[in-house]
Amino acid sequence: MAWYVLRRLLQMIPVFFGATFLIYAMVFLIPGDPIAALAGEKPLSPAIEAQLRARYHLDQPLITQYLLYLKGIFTLDFGTAFSGRPVSDELARAFPITIKLAFMAVFIEAVFGIVFGLIAGLRKGRLFDSTLLVASLVIIAVPVFVVGYVAQFLTGVKWGIAPTTVTGDASFAELLVPACVLGSLSFAYVLRLTRNSVAENMSADYVRTATAKGLGRRRVVTVHILRNSMIPVVTFLGADLGSLIGGAIVTEGIFNIPGVGGTLYQAITRVEPPTVVSFVTVLVVIFLLSNLIIDLIYAALDPRIRYA
């Protein structure tokens, strides 16, 4: 297992460098001059403009800028935003909130999606199964911002059971409704993945063999059917965690959450490459680590993977 983890970590190194270089190149090659955007309508003097370009290494070739950026990343120095505030302060403020929101969304979609998917798969073709399939299609078809505004209106305005916006503390109660909104689309996919996998595995030879040996219904379902049905679901959840963290812009905007999505959106509109690149780089690292954890979970779910 230790050798497997080491090999996976070594495989992640070129992915990290390739992804960060592409991100850096695309952000810094966007048409427009960030220094001119920083100045606004009033032009800067040539001396101040040259000083700012030297400060942010914009007077260097792209590859030199990237190497200097990597040097800062490895020393935990993410640079300074054009506003003068260290990017590390922005990361420390925004990421804990968004990570909490994303983990809550993953927990909600995983628990409810797997439970309802398991019940639907065991009752394939019945009314409960058909109802869930139709409901999941409706959830997939409705845009997230529509679900967000409707949930905000019902829970915050009409029923008054949850706050309409999130404060800087971002408590569990405040993030509960946004987490449900953020995880609603993935919940539908988890439900359908679990349902299809369970329905397929119910007719597998090993399930019939376990039943013929006299194993109880609960043991057959939990140990044999559900465990073997979790591999595609776990794969989706692992990839979805990184997607939720990076794709929380709409949800955070609706509920005024001071997380990664809102900060990243503001940095893009203000043309702040240091902030954008640093935030996306952390997202890349989170995505790679989450996939490493998912690979390790595979070995626990399927002994054939562990033995291989």
From TrEMBL:
One GO CC term, this protein: plasma membrane
PROSITE patterns: ABC_TM1
Record protein name field: ABC transporter permease
Keywords, alphabetical: Cell membrane, Membrane, Transmembrane, Transmembrane helix, Transport
PANTHER family named among the record's database cross-references: DIPEPTIDE TRANSPORT SYSTEM PERMEASE PROTEIN DPPB-RELATED, DIPEPTIDE-TRANSPORT INTEGRAL MEMBRANE PROTEIN ABC TRANSPORTER DPPB-RELATED
Family note: Belongs to the binding-protein-dependent transport system permease family.
Membrane topology classification: Multi-pass membrane protein
Lineage: Bacteria, Bacillati, Actinomycetota, Actinomycetes, Mycobacteriales
UniProt source species: Nocardia uniformis
Pfam families recorded: BPD_transp_1, BPD_transp_1_N
Compartments, record wording: Cell membrane
Domain of life: Bacteria
Membrane-crossing segments per the record: 12-30, 97-120, 132-151, 171-191, 233-255, 275-301
GO biological processes: transmembrane transport
ABC transmembrane type-1 domain residues: 95-298
Alphabetized InterPro entries for the sequence: BPD_transp_1_N, MetI-like, MetI-like_sf
